Structure formats: structure tokens, C-alpha cells
């Protein structure tokens, strides 16, 4: 615990006991709790306190200090005594060691006089708790007022104490004796009084309240108020659609957001404007100098009503509210936030922002409330090109849930007032938690924190470099240290990192990835430059021991590790194990993600201490090579290399005893030296491939290593290529690619050609019974969908559809705050149902979370997932480019045949696949170049649960997973089954088959007959009751530009017990509801949008779809019967080919005058996406079959916005491939979308050609010119053409 203490007067013995208890309690009572506090004691030195009591107070203070660690990153102490004047003794940051503090306390003099407590409180608020005097945003701020009498001015004391509390300071008040006034003590203290106000009759009674005070003090947490400088203006919708009650909720929202900031004339200033049909300037930036004034002024703003003109209001606000006369300060960031519930009654021409002068650099945010707020309109207000600054509240009552999120976003724009001395050069990598417990909203706040942090740095290729990776069940590299050389592109990249929630927190794998991949020279790491890694997580890793070992290895490489823990589920001990020592400088904790930006300045100060302004000179290279340390991982016998992995697997006890290194049972401490991939002889081709194997294999491996394919993986690559090669395609360093729905791969080391591939679809460990894996349209993997038991409250109203003097028609829906949603039924009555469901107990991996701006808490589940990982590389083998004379050759034989790969003396044809023992699976990717690619035959599995490990099994090449407790692994792979997609379970161990545990391996004890593997989706076990509904299915066919798109949400409604059987949403905002008979809601009031009930469920229709429509960036949701929501954001919009044409040509053999083959070429001017072509033929009027010939494509993008393509395709077929007879060839051109050929009139060409047999040709053979004329005439007759435009 770190404590800063400022002492300003009162009962000595009591304060000693309290602070000692506070300090010791936070350390010893609960190891996981980390307390850090700035404590100011206001000690009464008035005439009612005797000199003897005052000296006891000082002695008491000294004893407190003596129990604490004192220093800039530990406990800091300040002292103030007061009577009718303030007598500050020293501030929080004045002394950095314990003895100096103790000596200074002894020098404090007694004063005597009156009791002006309010002056002491005012001094603490305005002077003591400032950054200049040692205030830390990461610490809890505490004031302890100790007095034996009442103050001279009760009203001022109460008001000033409120100012102190508004700064985020927790106030304790202690009354000693009989002269205090209880009402005044209560007014000073933080609520509740029961835990912040203490009374004792005399000094001897202080120990009686020790335990209670200790408990209260240790519960005090930092407020993490955002401090710095910014001028923030709120622009609030005051139009008629809002109403007076809801307008009051908007004003309270302003006050609540302001409560998260340090509001003063030198820190954050708040202004307020409103609008209806007119712009109304309500509050200048400098009108309120603290939160008390701000609350009084904001509460007095009146509601106007009227029309809504957002465009005019935004322009007026930008031009008028940030002027010097309105309180704006020069060189202070300008921030504005627009809050509205609906569409403007006035149409603005173009973007609101673009109509304002470009030098008005105001950062704009917007909040839309309810279903009528229009995204397109709000997007014209904000200054963010990616719409990160637009937020939503489902109702006015839900604004309270947006307070922390909004404050955090605004805090990211604050200008720091504390200058951190940071050196000019550093390589900094962020490793951020993207697991299921974080959630998409918190992930946005995390990215905002990082982008705000780098804003203050000197980013550049020769200055500070930034890299970023995220992790959950596996690590993901977002960008390397040398990817971005300027701050603007770097911040854009940070803000556009996508949240990847596949569950789990494999911190160990992530930290290893950090050390082995990010801080490497080929990914931008520079020698001699500080390496700093910042790890941000909200939970514990699944295997703490491995995480600690990975962190130690990273630190041994010279990487300085900072660990930032967020929330209540973090492990302090694990954060300490991750971080570089000392922990108090490299470990930071915050209560939630919304507080990250509040510690930005403090974190930068700490980080900059590891970035020296002048880098130390590099030591000269060592002149002698140190003797290698003995490697404990050694084989006992010298012939281990002759044994295969079969021996390792089937004789494990023998393998672990005699060949642990060869069998991979132990890991060598030093990397093995790999022989270079080269031929010793220049004429290896003369020996031929036959001399590469058999009895000559040892000779070939020694002398013709490259030619015969004996190079180790990764060494046979052409080093000048500097790329990874995968299935014939080349990739640059750090580049990522997808291999269909099987793997996501990354070029991890282009110099050696090494790549790493992760399974796209994970396995799910012990999926809860309420959840099953379901196929979602447009998604590669099955995804978990859960049906939890829930219930709603429903109320029936028999009176007419009138609520609060507003009349509704049949089908209209309306909300009553966040409590109820109502619908007007046919016949004039209406019925209401609670907005939020009540859930039965959730599985242990799920919790209820209310997303910012939403009314209701909903389950958020973190599934424990596992992912397989493979690594591979490739290179060429075959003939050398040079030849020279060599000694006698062993029985020369033919050389390498064309178009074959050579691997370890064997020839392989194009696309042939083979195994290199149990280690590698190899592919002949390009036989013409002799290019062989080999990758791991057996996957490693990341994020295996505790108690599960990989073990060797007889008769198996690959290790299998063994768990010491019942376990189920469900694969989410759909369709194919690539390596690593399915986790295979090891059978229970049998005596004598498994070796004893060697160093570095941990095998699970016991037997596990209950382990099973599930390779496909399984539904939750039935409990005898019918489920509420089946999981709904949401789908849409591809749609042509300008046409209507229909989303179909299918579900079985036969057993639906809820009033609203269907709810449609857009980006989490409820937009329409349906009963079993009809649909109602704001969709029906919007042009081009319609919702209807159909026999199989419900449809949502969107008119006039285009590729730049916001419909494509919207996440549409369908929910039936209160069950799980299914999301859809995968509309496919296509443009059909414009003016497609095909040409048909024949190739004639000039010697025989016969048709050798045909070629069809098709083009189209304008299509999206690229055109796809297919060709069919009918022989002698038989059935049409697809031609197997390869189709060659050329696609060129146009300059249009959005883009289109000009496509060209061609196909050739020989006469032999066509065969004898008359063939009708058809050419089809269509957009490359699912079912594209059936979506457009795709038949473009139909042409016939006759191929005659040799006998037919000979029978009609003639000579001379007449013969040639006859042949040409016959060709013209035989070839008949039909072309479809």
C-alpha cells in the first residue's frame, strides 16, 4: 500500500491508531488488496487544545510515519495545523524519505487561536490536493479532520467540505471530548456518516474505535477524477419531442459526467447550450469555477420546447461558445458533445462539420437517445471519420449508464498539465486483453486510453515506436514496432483494432509472443533502445506459473514490463509477478476501464522514468566467447537420431531414459546449430536423385544437402526473397492471411520464411448446458448461443390507448423509461411488458452486464476456448546453378526430372502431400521450382484448461490431451476438419506405458474415463421441459444495388409465452416489436423500412440498398420470445455485369487444316464484386456439363466511389478434351457472390463447333486450292454462333 498523508490537526492518539491500522490493514489483512492513498490530516491547534495534547498529536503522527514506507512511489506525508489561520508544514511530495519526515514533524510549533475549520478545508482542496504538491491520480485521496470543538462558521465549513468531496476526496471527521458539534461533523464527512464519523469521549477511548476505523479506511478507493485542461461544452436537445421531465434527465447527465472531472478555473471548464428551433447559449465556460456552482447553474436551466434544428445549433455553438468572451482559454483543447433524441426538422446541406471554418479544431461527440435518433445525421456532427465518437442510449433513463463511458471518452481529449520528462527514443509495445470478460465497450475504452497515451509521445521512426498485440485464448499481432512512422496513422490504427472475443485469458502465451515476435529486429526493435511492454488485463491467467515464467524470460531479454490491472477480478500477486521490479513503479490498478484515461498522466510519468533522455553508450562487443553452460537436456546414447517418433511414442519409459532430447521430452537450454542449406559439390545434378537416398543417403546429406532436400526446415529458403511462401503466394514480414475458414496465418520471420497458423475456429471447453454451437450465416465458425431461463412482468390495460395525455394508434409502441414497453392493440386497449428480463442463476462463466446506454442487464459469457497452432516454412531443392569437377562419382544415374520436388532423396509431384516422420507434413507447392513447404504435423494447443495437458500415447504420432477431471471439448469448425480443429482425448493411462514425469512437463494424475470429444454442435441436455424456443436463424440473400433487401428471422413460436414474440434491433437499439399477429414500432414510421410477421417468423425489409449505405455498417439483431439474440451484419450487395460480351475463336492446325482447340473470352465493363465466369457444353444435344478447363481472370478496379470492376475471363479447350461430335458451348458471366449465376441473366454466349474424327477427315481429303477452299467452307458451315448481350 502507498499512502500520502497531510496532517492538519486533531486528536493525536486516535489518528495514530487509525493511520497505522489503515496502512497495515491494507497490506496484511488481504494480500490481493492494493491500497494507495494521499491522506491529509487537518489537526486542530486552536486555543481549546492544550500544548500537551498538541505534542501528543505530533508524537502520534511520528509513530504513524514510522510504520510506513516513505518515498515517491510509496507513502508521502504532508502536515497542516490550523487555528484561525492555516499553518502548512509540508506538502505530500516535499520529503522522499522517512527520517526527513520525522525530523520535520518534531519541529512543528503550537499556535493557539480560533477554530476556522473551513479555511483548513479550503487550503486542502485548493493547494494540498494539486498535482504540483504531490496529488496522484492513482491514489485514494483522504482528509482526516480531528477537532475538539465546533468551527467559527458552520455554513462555510459545510460548503467547503463539499468542495473537498467534489474533488474526489474522502473526508473522515473525528470529534474528541464534549465540545464538538455532531451536525457539523456529519456535514463535513463523506456519506455514509456511520463509517466516516467517529466520536470519542477522550484520548484514552480511541482504541475502542480502532477496528471500525481500520475497516472504513481500507475500503476507500481512488476516485480517479480526470484532471488536466479542457473546455467542454454540452449541446442539449430542448425540442418538444424531449419533454420537460426528460430534459431534466439530460441536465442530470451533464452534472454526473462533470462529477468525473476536476472542475476548476484552471482544470476542466464546463459550458452548456441548448437548442430547439433556435440556438440558446445557457452557460459560459467560466461561469462555474467548481462543481457546487456548476450544479446550481445547470439545475436552473429551463426547458423550452419547439422544433429541432441541430445543424444551426452545432454551427452556432462551434462559432460562439468557444470564444474568449465565453471563457475559452488559449491552447486548451475544445470538446463538444451533442445530445439529442430525434431527427432535425430542418435539413442541412452537407456535413455540419464541413460548414464550419477549418481552424475551429473542436473534437465533436454525439449521443442519440431512443429509436428516432438518426445515425446519418449524427455522423455529420462528429469529427471522427470512423464514427467512434457516436454513442447511443436506448431511453432517457439509460443516460445514467452512459456517464462513465462518456466521461472516459472525453477524458481522452484532456491536455495534461504535468510535464513528464521522457526521453526521445523507446520501443513500446502494448499487450491488451481481448477476452470475453472485457466486452466490446470496455475494449473501446482501452483503445482510447492507448491512443491518448501515444498522443503525448514523440512518435517517429527515429524516436518512439509503438507496437500492439491483443490476446485471449491466443495472441494476435495488430501491428509491429516499425509499421507506423507518424502519429496520425498510428492513432487511426489503434482506434480501429477489432475486439476478438473467443474466450479465455492465456497470458502466458501472449507474453511469450511478445518476447519472441514483437521485440525482434525484423519487427522493428532497435538495439540499445529501451524496450517497454504494457500489459493490460481484467482477469487472471489460466496458468499463473507459466505466466510468471514467460514474464521472467521476457525480463531476462531486457524488456521492462508494466502490468495494468482493471476491475475486481485481478490478482495482485500475478500483476506483481508480471511486472519489472519495483512493483510500486510498474504495477497500476484501476477499478474499471472507464478510469484508465484518468491515470494517463501518472502512468506516463512512471513509464518515462524508464526512457532516459540520454541513452547509455553500448558496451563494446565481447572479445571472448563465454564458455557454454552445461545443458541438462542431453541424450544418453549416441544413436538416438536413428530412432523415429514411433519409438518415442511406443516406448516412452525407454525414450525418457535414453533419448529425452531426440524425443522432445526435454527442451535444450541453447538452440541447436543447424547446418547451412548448401551443396558441398557443385555438380550434384550429375549424381542424380537416385544417389540421394538408400545406401548413399548419409553421403548425400553431407555433400548434396540442398539438391537432395536434406535441409532443416527454414534453412532452404532463398534469403534474398525475404518473404514467407504459402500455397504459392508470397507474404511480407508481419503480413497476415486467411486460408479459407481453416487458418489465420502470419509471416513471423520472413528472413527464414517461417510462418505461424492458428485455427480460426476454436474448441469450447465444458460448454454450459444452456448453450449450443450454432451455424451463423456468413460466419466460418459455429458460435455459442445460449437460452437462459428468464421471465418478464406483463400488465394489461383495458382503457383506451392513451398514456400521459398522448394517444396511440393500433400497432404503435412506446416506452415508459427503462421500466416498460407498451403496444396499442387492435380495439383500443394497450398492454405493457417489462423492458428487462429476470434471469435464473447463470452459469459460473456468465455475468449480467449493462452495456453503456442500454436499459437492461444482459448475460455476458466468457467461454473457455482452445486454439491449435502450427508453424511451417518452405524452400527449394534440386539442381545447383553451377557445376565443377568432383572426385569419382558413385554410379552416376539420370538427374532430376522436370516439374518434381526433391525431399530427403525422394521425388514428389505437384501438390503431393507426405509426412516427414511424426514431425512434419510436407507439400510440393511448386514442382517447377522444386519448392517444398513443411509444417508441423501435430498442433500445439493454446489455453488448455488447468488439469489438462498434452501427453504421448502409444501408436500415435501426435500427443493427445489428457485431463484429470471430466471434460468436454466441442469443436466449432464447420465443414472441413483441418489439423488442430478437433481436440483428441487421450485414453486413461495404463501402468508401464507412460514415463515418469521429466523436467519441464506436468502430466495430470489419475484416470479420466469420462472425457469425451464433440466435433459438432450439440444441444443442451433436456431436463424434461420444452425449451422456450429454438434458436432463431437470421439470413438474407445477396441483393442487387438499388433493390430491397429482406432479412428473414425464422423461429418456432408455438410455445412462446411472451407478449412480444419478436424484437428487432439495430446496433443494440430496439427498433420494432411484434406480437404474434402484427408488428409495431418506429420502423413502420420510417420510409423504406418495414417489419412483418410471416408464417416462419418475421421479416425486415430495407429499400434501396447501396454499398455506401449505413445499413451495411449496422448490426441487425433479431430476438424471439425473450431468448437469445441473433446478429447479422453480412449483407451482400452486388452490381450485375454491365454490357457483358463474349468472343469465340478456333485454332486451326495449318498442316492438317483441323481444329486444334477453341478459346472463349468474356468481358464486362462494370460489375461488383469481380465477375465470375463459368462454361458448359452439350455434346450432340446431350446434357449440359461444366467444362473442367481452367479459367483465367483479369480484374481492374474503377475510379468510382464505391468501386466497381472491369473483368475479363478466358477459357481454352483442346480438340482432344472436347472429343468427337458437335458441341454447343455456353458462357456465363455473373457477380462473384453466392448463387450469382441465378441472380442475373448470366448466359452471354452460346456457340456450336463440330470436331471430326481422323477417319472423317481422311474420307473427305482433297488436294490443292480446291481442297483448302472446301475445308474453309466446311468450317464456316459447321460453326454457328449465338451471342447474348
UniProtKB/TrEMBL annotation:
Lineage: Eukaryota, Metazoa, Spiralia, Lophotrochozoa, Mollusca
Leader sequence residues: 1-28
GO cellular component, one term: extracellular region
Biased composition (Low complexity): 878-895
Domain ShKT: 633-666, 677-711
Residues annotated as domain VWFC: 722-787, 799-862, 899-964
Domain VWFA: 38-213, 231-406, 427-603
Record SUPFAM superfamilies: FnI-like domain, vWA-like
Coiled coil location: none
Superkingdom of the organism of origin: Eukaryota
Disulfide bonds: 677-711
Subcellular location as annotated: Secreted
Protein name, per record: VWFA domain-containing protein
